[in-house]
Write a structure and sequence with these properties.
globular, disordered C terminus, 2 strands, 437 residues
Length: 437
Amino acid sequence: MTETAQLISDDPLWLILLKVVAIFVVLVVLTLLCIWFERRVLGRMQHRPGPNRAGPFGILQTLADGLKLAFKEDIRPVLADKWIYVLAPIISATPALVSFSVIPVGPEVTIFGERTALQLVDLPVGLLVVLACASIGVYGIVLAGWSSGSPYPLLGSLRSAAQVISYEIAMGLSFIAVILYAGTLSTSGIVAAQANGWFFLLLPFSFVVYLVAMVGETNRAPFDLPEAESELVGGFHTEYSSLKFALFFLAEYINMVTVSALATTLFLGGWHAPWPLSLIGDGVLNTGWWPALWFFGKTILFLFFFVWLRGTLPRLRYDQFMDLGWKFLVPLSLLWIMAVAVIRQVRNAGLVSPQQFLIGGGVLIAVLVLVILLVPGRRTPPEEPPKAPLSGGGYPVPPLDLEVPETPARRTPARTGAQTGEGAGGPRSEETSNGHV
């Protein structure tokens, strides 16, 4: 048992309840602030003010929207499965709250005279808990789409299931290199292993894979295919309203906070202060309550990354999204894990000196770059002109080489009655005399 786990195991019941309430309050407040922050940042990116009426800088706008949702009419479709329809939002929101319990927010502190760590529970398999919670959370989305009794939510839920399966594998593979270097699955142990260097510098490829996977895992743009409004109206939550819709909204943003906090824990040193500040006073800023400030500052940095992607990139096609996960992230992650294992074995066995290792690595990277630059790419054959005119749905169309004449044909003037030989007693005069004009 680690020192942090031993310290947490001695917590009295009142302190455990206090931590549970604090985690819930922090996640809800961060959700409110994150929605406001996203709308303000997107407004600045699109040259508009964003929310600026309710409260200073519009900061109370999200609270007003939440109260409005609570008082909206709760509508349930006639074809919906009642109990599963009600249970799905709860299943989606609960794992999002539970997964934050293994995240270390800070080191040892004193709360009302009781020594403890700023972490609810420290498990030897903390990373597996986060993956398990992410896997259970998708059940809420799938059940919501299935129980709504509508085709659009069902399609969105099926997309979400395929998406989570694909990108959870890539996310799990990005953990392996971190586990190899930290030597533990405990989140507090991983943070302790980064006291002298953060893992995003040591394992850059794992960091990039996790960034892509966490966006796909949370169904955020440009990977928001389960709720694509241009295709599926609203996706899996199309038939939800009032507080049930608010629970899905809450689950999405809490998941964003959780994966951002996990990225901070795995790759940015957790609660450790950044490099210039960590040297002040022989690490005094890594003690007490200061580390909680560094932790949430790094987490907000990742939340800004989510917002930045949403305001910058368009939504991917579904086939492109699946190709990215299965054809690039998963195979390259497997190769990266093999390379990391070989490098660690070579260094631990002392077969080469650190200088030789760095020189060899530099030469290998240079050779790979030269191969990529010098090897010609695959040439695609020129496209042949279509043998038959293209059409939508197989309907006949005019020939593609049809040209419009420069001067249209002259219209023949209308023939008058005199030209046709009809006189005053003709049909026209009879119609007029009968009163038919």
